[in-house]
Amino acid sequence: MDLATLIGLIGAIGIIAASILLGTGAQVFFNVPSLLIVIGGSLFVVLAKFNVSQFIGAIKVAGRAFRFKLPDTEASISELVELATLARKQGLLALEEKEISQPFLASGIQLLIDGHPQETVKAILEKERVLTLDRNRWGAKVFSALGDVGPAMGMIGTLIGLVQMLSNMEDPKSIGPAMAVALLTTLYGAMLATMICLPIADKLNLRMTEEARMQALWIDAILAIQEGTNPRVIEQLLRSYLPENKRDKAAGGEAQDA
């Protein structure tokens, strides 16, 4: 579970809810027609922008904003160096006995075990990497579109409410409550975009970057293992994926060991 996403969304919603409850009360801020315009209208407009599979796929991908975990980069490098050492000593077939938890890495190692040429291995893994990026990218696009459409639908709802209010001005006492209801759609649209859709879109973009980076590391390692590269060279190559401060720490530790 990604605590940053969970805490951020719950915290933002909690602050808004607290300010409402400490004010006039929750009843004033609940209006079914306004919710229908903003939520229902936004969903239908975004559906018109994409196809059904992309729209449904985005809903499924949204879970990655809350529950998604890649292996630690240093731990993954250690695992890959171990695999490289085993392959160099006993051959690629020895890798069949190793249990690998990450599906992408496992499929790449299996390609080596099956004896495919390097061009084929690279093409298959790069294709899988591109498709994974594409799924994440479309999910982020759908939620970005919801973030753009939500406030616009809120403004449309407000204009509808204002037209209805101005067409019935006989009772001055009704103008205040009618104006409040009209403004609720703007509030709903802003909340939908700022507190839900845009944070999820940004988090999916972050997931896409993180996963692409990890898959690039795995591909480099798999191809180097297939070439029979020295495990120490592979480790040095893969450590370029670490943040600079961790690379310096690793280099310092190696120097002390030497």
From TrEMBL:
<feature type="transmembrane region" description="Helical">
    <location>
        <begin position="145"/>
        <end position="166"/>
    </location>
</feature>
<keyword id="KW-0283">Flagellar rotation</keyword>
<dbReference type="Pfam" id="PF01618">
    <property type="entry name" value="MotA_ExbB"/>
</dbReference>
<feature type="transmembrane region" description="Helical">
    <location>
        <begin position="28"/>
        <end position="50"/>
    </location>
</feature>
<keyword id="KW-0969">Cilium</keyword>
<dbReference type="GO" id="GO:0006935">
    <property type="term" value="P:chemotaxis"/>
</dbReference>
<keyword id="KW-0813">Transport</keyword>
<keyword id="KW-0812">Transmembrane</keyword>
<keyword id="KW-0472">Membrane</keyword>
<comment type="similarity">
    <text>Belongs to the MotA family.</text>
</comment>
<dbReference type="InterPro" id="IPR000540">
    <property type="entry name" value="Flag_MotA_CS"/>
</dbReference>
<dbReference type="InterPro" id="IPR002898">
    <property type="entry name" value="MotA_ExbB_proton_chnl"/>
</dbReference>
<keyword id="KW-0966">Cell projection</keyword>
<dbReference type="GO" id="GO:0005886">
    <property type="term" value="C:plasma membrane"/>
</dbReference>
<keyword id="KW-0282">Flagellum</keyword>
<keyword id="KW-1003">Cell membrane</keyword>
<dbReference type="InterPro" id="IPR047055">
    <property type="entry name" value="MotA-like"/>
</dbReference>
<keyword id="KW-1133">Transmembrane helix</keyword>
<feature type="domain" description="MotA/TolQ/ExbB proton channel">
    <location>
        <begin position="97"/>
        <end position="212"/>
    </location>
</feature>
<protein>
    <submittedName>
        <fullName>Flagellar motor protein PomA</fullName>
    </submittedName>
</protein>
<dbReference type="GO" id="GO:0071978">
    <property type="term" value="P:bacterial-type flagellum-dependent swarming motility"/>
</dbReference>
<feature type="transmembrane region" description="Helical">
    <location>
        <begin position="178"/>
        <end position="201"/>
    </location>
</feature>
